[in-house]
Amino acid sequence: MSATGSERSVRWWIAVAIVISLAAALGWNGLVREATGQERVMTAGGMLLGACAALYAWAVMLARFTPRTRLVVLVGVPLAAALGSWLIEVRGVSGDLVPLLRWRLASDPEASLEPPAAPGPLSAPKPRAEASPWLDFPRFLGPDGDAVVRGVRLARDWDASPPRLVWRRAIGPGWSGFAVRGSAAITQEQRETEELVVCYDLTTGAVRWSHADRARFDSVIGGIGPRATPTVHGGRVLTVGGTGILNCLDLSTGERLWSHSVITENDGSMNTWGTSCSPLVVDGRVVVSTGGSRGRSLVAYDLESGELAWSGGDDGAGYSSPKLLELAGARQIVAFNASSVAAHDPADGRVLWSYPWSERNPNVAQPVSVADDELVLSSGYGVGAERLRILRDAAGAFSVERVWRSRALKAKFANFALREGHLYGIDDGILTCVEIEGGRRGWKGGRYGHGQLLLVDDLLLVTAEDGSLVLVEAVPDEHRELARVDALGQKTWNSPALAAPYLLLRNDVEAVCFELVLEEGSGGRE
């Protein structure tokens, strides 16, 4: 049977031109264009939507389909789109803003979680002479807060000595990491309307105790739950929730000793992606970034009483955590804020120096000290890194000068670490090595996404964004991946914790503990 005239005259060439134009544009965007991964994803999304709209308009108005076919397209496409939006929801995004989808009718992992077990007190922390054989990891990024674990050497051959799974368990949403003291492994998570601090047994994963606050931070892009990592100091646990609740809890029982709503009390404003600073304990005080106005950007509370000790600064809060450094011969608390990096006197909170920084996008990665009077800052979103030198004159006044600026390291929210004159970090989703001397890139390789890392002697433990655990040599000549384990299996933004030999990993769905094989004579306590 011969085709009708109208069917023979369908203008397929228009559709072909649209598809070819889309393919060419996507190729330019992905392979040629100088842009961040996020910018490429957003541009590609716009291109796809534009092409779909063009094809829809072509089918309805320009293709010369039969009236019946045009009616089917005119009505069917919107109905199919509506059905798809009813069946599928965006449950989050990747670090490059790629939507992560799930069926709306699928069970919600958070809703299916059982409540934590009734609090059961831990034994009192053991004195140092009787302490546990593994190392503590008492706060965000480790004992020194610099993503470096010292005194430990990991076995390099994971084929011969693979990580041993100790336990795995479901966990509530949140981007908090673990803090470890003795057998207590403490993290923060969300359970429906309650924000929890939960103490798990390091070697079994059993719940020891939990503390709940009625609070919830929820963002499609940023995710659900608390962002900060607990800090363990002596017999106390300090936590900051996603909405700015600062708690001081008893390490043995989880009992609340004191609490503050630091955003509300200090005239701060909630960050778009939630309050993210992990508490810093200095000289018997708990220091947190609030972004408050009128001299309350950074505040300190007495560790014992919870009373306000001092405040200082006026910049809004970033997504970084305050950090104690010694620069130009003086102890300083460095805060990477919304539009600056500033140093405060630990004694009274006064601002010692300030250096302007990009405020277009979040500042997240921790500053890294690279010399007695120098530090490196880095931000993602195309900003890059700078090496700063802190100067002090005869009168004691501080000033700042830039040593170099480089786009070789754009740390979006992955922290970076220093080893032997080189920085190792994730540059827009790809692991990179950068020379300290001039900010030049040594190498770039390993598409690990927006994950996190720890430096352990001359090895990097990388938690990739897809949940893989990767072992990489920290050497300046080339990228050398030694081993890889599928640890979590889905989006992982949380920082790892190594209480050697135990490695704790988590994301917004589950937590896992591995025992790593150490080289003989490495790890543990003296």
Description:
With 526 residues, this protein is mostly beta strands. Among the domains are: 82 residues; 93 residues, Beta Barrel (Thrombin, subunit H). A 5-stranded mixed β-sheet has the order 3-31-32-33-34, with no helix packed on it. A 4-stranded antiparallel β-sheet has the order 4-37-36-35, with no helix packed on it. The protein has a 4-stranded antiparallel β-sheet with strand order 5-6-7-8, with no helix packed on it. β28 and β29 form a beta hairpin. α2 runs antiparallel to α3 and α3 packs antiparallel against α4. The N terminus is likely disordered.
Short description:
This protein is mostly beta strands. It has 5 helices and 37 strands.
CATH architecture of the domain at 320-412: Beta Barrel
Q: How much strand content do the residues show?
A: 35-45%
Shape: globular
Mean pLDDT: 93
Percent helix: 10-25%
Rg calc: 26 Å
How many beta-strand elements?
37
Count, helices: 5
Distance between the termini: 90 Å
Assembly of the depicted chains: single chain
CATH class of the domain at 320-412: Mainly Beta
Structural class: mainly beta
- Which regions are unreliable across 5 or more consecutive residues at pLDDT < 50? 1-6, 123-131
Largest sheet: 5 strands, mixed
Predict the CATH topology of the domain at 320-412: Thrombin, subunit H
Side by side, the strands of the main sheet go: 3-31-32-33-34
